[in-house]
């Protein structure tokens, strides 16, 4: 983080309004909506011009120390803190791998013995069949 003081919100708003007015006057900054990749690149470039990494870091740091006021006084805002911690970890470490269980079933109509054996050894398969039977019975 830099040693300079965080930018004031009014200053940022004034800068943003001035830049938006300048962009409105310019006709060359129009997005080509037919190419999503181009839209994403232009949005990233526009965000990078408007928001500095130091400002983002300052805002994440503010989330970590947020409080809220109640009748009992000022208490830590754990939801804001959690959001700040998640953002910090996402940028510093990266997001964890999202895992999902995929159950593939090959049902042979003439092999009831094989199906019974697979059901005996697979809790996931039994759970899938229970859910399917419940849906059929409800309909």
- Computed over alpha carbons, the radius of gyration is 27 Å
Strand order of the largest sheet: 1-2
Q: Which structural class fits the helix and strand makeup?
A: mainly alpha
Dominant shape: elongated
Number of helices: 6
Query: How widely separated are the two ends?
Result: 60 Å
The secondary-structure element order is: HHHEEHHH
> What ranges have pLDDT less than 50 throughout 5 or more consecutive residues?
1-5
How would a crystallographer describe the biggest sheet?
Answer: 2 strands, antiparallel
Describe this structure in words.
The chain has about 140 residues and is mostly helical. About 60% of the residues lie in helices and about 5% in strands. The chain is built from six helices and two strands. The chain has helices at about 10-25, 35-50, 55-65, 80-90, 110-120, 125-139; strands at about 65-70, 75. It has a two-stranded antiparallel sheet. β1 (about 65-70) and β2 form a beta hairpin. α3 crosses α4. The radius of gyration is 27 Å and the shape is elongated. Mean pLDDT is about 80; it is low at about 1-5.
Record the SSE blueprint.
Layout: H1 9-25, H2 36-50, H3 53-64, E1 67-70, E2 73-76, H4 78-92, H5 112-121, H6 123-138
Antiparallel strand pairs: 1-2
Helix pairs in contact: 3-4
Quick structural summary:
Helix content is 61%, strand content 6%. It has helices spanning 9-25, 36-50, 53-64, 78-92, 112-121, 123-138, and strands at 67-70, 73-76.
